[in-house]
Structures are given as C-alpha cells and as structure tokens.
C-alpha cells in the first residue's frame, strides 16, 4: 500500500508537535520527492552513506533525526551538501527530519526509547523549570555499581562507553541522548547517582568528579538510534507502509 506524502508528513508533524518546538533546524519535510510513499527508510543522520543505502533500498522517503539546514551553516548548495541533495532529488526521495521533537516525545522520543532499552523507569524531566533541557530523570529497579551499569550499557548499545567514577553505587539516573553533556550540572543538582549522555567535553570530567556524580558517555549516534526507529514503526502501522531501519555505524 501507499499513502500520500502530504498526509504522512501532516501526521508526523502532528504526532511530534513539531510546529510548537523551537529548534536549530527546520523540522518536517526538508526535501520533497515523489507524491506517494510506500516504503520508508529510517536512520540517525542523513549522511551520504545513508542516502546511498536508501536509494539501494528503493525508499520513497528517508526519515532521520539529523537532517540538513542547521542554523549558522553555510547556506550554499555546494560540495558535500550538493552531492547529498542531488542524490535525493535524482531518485525522487523525500527527506523528513525531526530533531528536538524526536528527542522529547513521550512515546517515540530518543530519551524515552533509550530508557526502555536500558530498563530505566522514567520519573520526570531532568530540569522541570527549564523546558529547553530535554533530558529525563529515572531509576533502576535495583541499584548496581557504576562499572556494572556501564557494562550493561555497552552490551545493549554495542559500544564500549566512557565511564567516570567506576565504584559509585547507582540507582537514580539522569540522561539526555546525543550531545547533552552540558546538562551534567542540572543532573547533579537533581541528586542523581549517574548522568548518561552521548558525548563528553573536557570539563565534563571535572563536573562529574567535583559534584560526586558518576558519568557515562555512550556515543551520540549510539544513544539516538531508537527514536527514529520507533517513529518509523508508528508511521508504518498508521499507514500500512513498509519500514526499514538502516544503521550506518558511527563511533562518535
């Protein structure tokens, strides 16, 4: 079966409340392809490798978390950007991208989906007073040492994480997928035992040590693989179309 591109985009925008979330890039349809969608390919980032894989898979629509046209980037369609867009347009493939709307969604969001993968019970927002902080707070059913939890994270995500403070006993956790290392101070203020995100900055080590919080950087890409899959599954069920997730490995 197939659904009109306009209908699918309208539903995705509505479901994610995309129009009401301020972001660093346009959310929704970024490149318009053929008017009917029968096969969706999802992935984390609309890299050339993922675009090529979507072409090989005969996708009508490519749905990603990291799309194009970020604030502050050079707007000229040259080089890498030209090659990516040329490939999409040549093969009449639409590009649909959701950044922050896909991080914060309570059902298919990256943060909620990562919690489900790691068996963390969600309790609420990392910083309820500041909606710009998109991380969450939660807890493990049973406490474990930070070293053991890091091993579990590595097993689930298929990537050895960076760990600071290996011996701390962990039950209460704060997390934000992707590049959320800047929220470690909010996590410490919320009283967590451990803060987990995708990346680390030089100062993150000192914040963790001096605030008495264990810290895990599990990979930007690795922590953000699950939201886009869940959204793709939702749209596939909603419109009875095909959905294929393609993971283009990224060690960062």
From TrEMBL:
The keyword Ribonucleoprotein does not apply. Signal peptide: none annotated. Keywords: Metal-binding. NCBIfam families: YbgI_SA1388. Belongs to the GTP cyclohydrolase I type 2/NIF3 family. This is Nif3-like dinuclear metal center hexameric protein. It comes from Pseudomonas typographi. The lineage of its organism: Bacteria, Pseudomonadati, Pseudomonadota, Gammaproteobacteria, Pseudomonadales.
């Amino acid at each position: 079966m197939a659904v009109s591109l306009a209908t699918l985009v309208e539903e995705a925008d509505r479901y994610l409340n995309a129009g009401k979330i301020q972001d660093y890039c346009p959310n929704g349809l970024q490149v318009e392809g053929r008017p009917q969608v029968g096969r969706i390919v999802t992935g984390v980032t609309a890299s050339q490798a993922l675009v090529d894989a979507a072409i090989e898979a005969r996708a009508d629509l490519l749905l990603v978390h990291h799309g194009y046209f970020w604030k502050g980037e050079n707007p000229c369609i040259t080089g890498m950007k030209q090659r990516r867009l040329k490939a999409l347009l040549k093969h009449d493939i639409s590009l649909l991208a959701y950044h922050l709307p896909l991080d914060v969604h309570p059902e298919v969001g990256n943060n909620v989906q990562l919690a489900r993968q790691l068996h963390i019970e969600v309790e609420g927002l990392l910083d309820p007073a500041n909606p710009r902080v998109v991380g969450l707070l939660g807890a493990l059913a049973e406490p474990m040492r930070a070293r053991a939890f890091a091993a579990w994270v590595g097993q689930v995500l298929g990537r050895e994480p960076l760990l600071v403070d290996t011996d701390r006993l962990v039950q209460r956790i704060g997390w934000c997928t992707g590049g959320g290392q800047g929220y470690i101070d909010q996590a410490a203020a919320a009283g967590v035992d451990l803060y987990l995100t995708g990346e680390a900055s030089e100062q993150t080590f000192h914040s963790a040590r001096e605030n008495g919080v264990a810290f895990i950087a599990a990979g930007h890409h690795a922590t953000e693989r699950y939201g886009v899959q869940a959204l793709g599954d939702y749209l596939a069920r909603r419109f009875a179309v095909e959905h294929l997730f393609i993971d283009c490995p990224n060690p960062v």
